[in-house]
UniProtKB/TrEMBL annotation:
<dbReference type="Pfam" id="PF01627">
    <property type="entry name" value="Hpt"/>
</dbReference>
<dbReference type="GO" id="GO:0000160">
    <property type="term" value="P:phosphorelay signal transduction system"/>
</dbReference>
<dbReference type="InterPro" id="IPR008207">
    <property type="entry name" value="Sig_transdc_His_kin_Hpt_dom"/>
</dbReference>
<protein>
    <submittedName>
        <fullName>Hpt domain-containing protein</fullName>
    </submittedName>
</protein>
<dbReference type="InterPro" id="IPR036641">
    <property type="entry name" value="HPT_dom_sf"/>
</dbReference>
<feature type="modified residue" description="Phosphohistidine">
    <location>
        <position position="57"/>
    </location>
</feature>
<feature type="domain" description="HPt">
    <location>
        <begin position="18"/>
        <end position="114"/>
    </location>
</feature>
<dbReference type="GO" id="GO:0004672">
    <property type="term" value="F:protein kinase activity"/>
</dbReference>
<keyword id="KW-0597">Phosphoprotein</keyword>
């Protein structure tokens, strides 16, 4: 099973094929995700795993709605590792989320969705 960066077909179904709404939605997501990642990095510096977990949970929801499976899985794993206080894994998954975000932006651009 391959993981889609963004499942465009499911996104089109979710928004009844309305590309204008999809563009608006993805624009908001592209703005929100890096802010959440930065909040997580700061919370990690402050040793505030509750905030890291909360932001990971929020990104997981955003990614699910974007049909961005890889990012959703990364955020889910980050959330789990916050609960288990697995510092090394937390660091790794924050980096993974950053990479997922770069891939998502490229996919959106490639498909001219924003």
């Amino acid at each position: 099973m391959s993981i889609n960066i963004i499942d465009i077909n499911k996104l089109l179904i979710q928004f009844s094929g309305d590309k204008k709404i999809i563009k608006n939605f993805l624009t908001i997501c592209i703005y929100e995700i890096p802010q959440r990642i930065e909040h997580m990095k700061q919370a990690l510096k402050d040793n505030d795993l509750v905030s890291v977990k909360l932001n990971a949970h929020t990104i997981k929801g955003i990614a699910a709605n974007m049909r961005a499976d890889s990012m959703m899985k990364s955020a889910e794993n980050l959330e789990k590792n916050c609960i288990e206080n697995q510092q090394q894994m937390i660091d790794m998954y924050i980096i993974k989320l950053e990479h997922d975000f770069v891939d998502i932006k490229a996919e959106i651009s490639k498909n001219m969705l924003v």
